[in-house]
Design brief:
The complex is a heterodimer. Chain A is about 35% helix and about 25% strand. Chain A contains 8 helices and 10 strands. Chain A has a 10-stranded mixed beta sheet with strand order 3-2-1-4-5-10-9-6-7-8, with helices on both faces. Chain A starts with a strand and ends with a strand. The model of chain A has no long low-confidence stretch (mean pLDDT about 85). The mean pLDDT of chain B is about 85. The two termini of chain B are about 20 Å apart. Classes of the chains: A alpha/beta, B alpha/beta.
Chain lengths: ~280, ~280
């Protein structure tokens, strides 16, 4: 049985993420720990280049506390109604990434919103808060769009590097029940580059032991945008990606492709990397 | 089904690796990939019947020796295959060429775990334990390594070496994913604490929240000592059940490991128990 960390900030309750939790609860029992984060101690500087902007501006603590309490109340209510084992962790009085790191060290998975995390401070995702979580988390993170309903197939992005295999292995460890779904491991590259899936024989040997219905494809796209269009046109898909590594061989093309996918808010994404 | 690489020296396959591979395949429904490794600088020794050593630039006997080696490799492969066939183990074989360590590290990207004998060294001159081969494997592999002792014993108890660190938790979590059915065995968490006044595991509540969902009963021990490695080795030596230790080791840089011996190195050298070692 797993321990899943449900990440929520102030009153940005991630309803799509909770739907995902409910859907996996039908097949898998787990402890759901709600980790509730307060706002940062300082508000974002309002005006760039303002010489006074470096001054700390305390967030509205009363409103902040009230929002977090309301999110906790909603979480408890929803967990009870869905008969999900739960616990509540209200984190430090202001957001610090170290709280996320500590919680993730003792969790199997983080589930969070693809759209809402601190969106009242920075709307465009992945904002700096989400990026910090994705980079510093010590367990895999799954980000869920608010419009989530279900997924019926898996697409794993593979580039032959250790990060992509790491993510694939972590997914198989955590969700053996989903390996029964139709799955595609896709090695994609820009048009005109040398074709061929790196280490295909080894990849096949690993993946066929874990996935029941598996295709390994080598696809060429003219740019990141066309890959994302293809991905988003595949209905009810969950994407697996080894991204946001703090060090090591970061593939900038791969990285920006995941960021673009996050911006679309259409596909749940399972992200893992070695720390 | 997990894919476990059983690493074999193709000149001398470890019986213990074979036995642990069979055990893991049967108990945990694993698929075994028998990787028969060779190394360009590693050859059979004269005293084991591989012909005369090449001395003083005289390589006249080399051709014969290489032929004997090839025969021995074929016999080793047949021996392992026959053993697995006889016991109904699902397996496949890889014949990795040229450089043992490189081959195995490449294999590790695409495996759930590697099984290797603590005495394997792929060298005619390296007498250290753990060997340079094993140290490099532990440092660079992309999957956990189970280092097994010379003689097989079924695992009766699992001891998690815990220090609150990221790597100890990573090893613990990975172990629970790969061996979810190990609930019948005893599970213990041991902390070697430098603090003479504390009787608490670091982040005790968070740890409990994670593990109580995985194992119904977990023993806890805190050993107070200034020397983590010695205290852990002594603690594991005194276990009456056949235990396996789970360690998050080899996270540090090569320089740091050179300056300070890894706990895992000392345990491999001193103990005769299987060690599950992982780092992220």
């Amino acid at each position: 049985m797993k321990k899943i960390l449900f990440v929520c900030d102030t009153d940005n309750f991630p309803s799509g993420a909770f739907k995902f939790i409910q859907s996996i609860h039908l097949r898998d029992k787990f402890l759901l720990t709600g980790a509730f984060f307060h706002s940062e101690l300082v508000a974002e500087p309002a005006v760039v280049e303002d010489c006074f902007a470096n001054e700390s501006v305390p967030a509205n603590k009363t409103a902040d506390i009230k929002s977090v309490k309301e999110s906790i109340r909603l979480f408890v209510h929803k967990c009870k109604r869905a008969s999900i084992h739960f616990s509540v962790h209200e984190e430090s009085s202001h957001f610090t990434i170290e709280d996320v790191v500590k919680e993730s060290r003792f969790a199997d998975l983080i589930v969070m919103s693809e759209e809402l995390f601190f969106s009242d401070i920075i709307v465009s995702q992945p904002n700096k808060y989400m990026q910090q979580v994705l980079q510093r988390s010590e367990c895999p993170v799954i980000i869920i769009p608010e419009s989530y309903t279900s997924f019926k197939s898996i697409v794993a992005a593979y580039d032959g590097k250790r990060e992509s295999m790491f993510a694939l292995k972590q997914f198989c460890n955590l969700f053996p029940q989903f390996t029964l779904l139709p799955s595609t491991i896709i090695h994609w590259q820009k048009s005109g580059l040398c074709p061929g899936v790196p280490d295909r024989r080894y990849l096949e040997e690993y993946a066929t032991r874990h996935f029941s219905i598996l295709h390994i494809e080598n696809k060429q796209f003219k740019d990141i945008q066309s890959f994302n269009e293809w991905l988003c046109s595949t209905p009810d898909t969950l994407l697996i990606a080894g991204s946001f590594s703090n060090h090591g061989s970061i593939n900038s093309m791969h990285e920006s492709f995941i960021e673009k996918t996050i911006q679309q808010h259409k596909v749940p994404i399972f992200i893992a990397h070695p720390i | 089904m997990n894919k476990i690489i059983a690493a074999f020296d193709s000149l001398h396959a470890s019986d213990s690796t074979m036995d642990y591979a069979v055990y893991l395949a049967k108990e945990f429904n694993a698929h075994i990939v028998a990787a028969f490794l060779r190394d360009i600088l590693y050859h059979g020794k004269a005293e084991y019947g591989f012909g005369q050593p090449y001395e003083g630039g005289d390589f006249t006997g080399a051709e014969t020796a290489l032929k004997i080696e090839e025969q021995v490799r074929n016999n080793t492969i047949e021996k392992v295959k026959n053993h697995f066939n006889r016991l109904g183990v699902p397996y496949s074989t890889h014949h990795d060429p040229a450089i043992a360590i490189q081959s195995l590290i490449s294999e590790s990207h695409f495996a759930d775990m590697i099984l290797v004998d603590a005495d394997d060294n792929f060298s005619g001159w390296d007498k250290t334990k753990p060997s340079h081969f094993l140290k490099n494997l532990l440092a660079d592999a992309d999957c956990p390594i189970m280092v097994v002792p010379k003689y097989f014993k079924p695992i009766e108890k699992v001891v998690f070496a815990y220090d609150g660190s990221s790597s100890s938790m990573y090893a613990m979590r990975l172990f629970t994913y790969l061996f979810p059915k190990i609930v019948s065995q005893q599970i213990e968490i041991v902390l070697i604490s430098h603090d003479q006044h504390s009787n608490h595991l670091p982040e005790h509540q968070l740890l409990k929240e994670l593990l109580k969902r995985k194992y119904p009963v977990i023993l806890q021990s805190i050993v107070k000592s200034e020397d983590t490695t010695d205290a852990l080795a002594m603690y594991l030596q005194t276990q009456t059940a056949n235990c396996m230790a789970v360690l998050g080791s080899y996270q540090r840089s090569a320089l740091s490991r050179w300056l300070h011996q890894s706990t895992a190195d000392a345990l491999i050298a001193e103990l005769n128990i299987p060690l599950f070692i992982a780092h992220n």
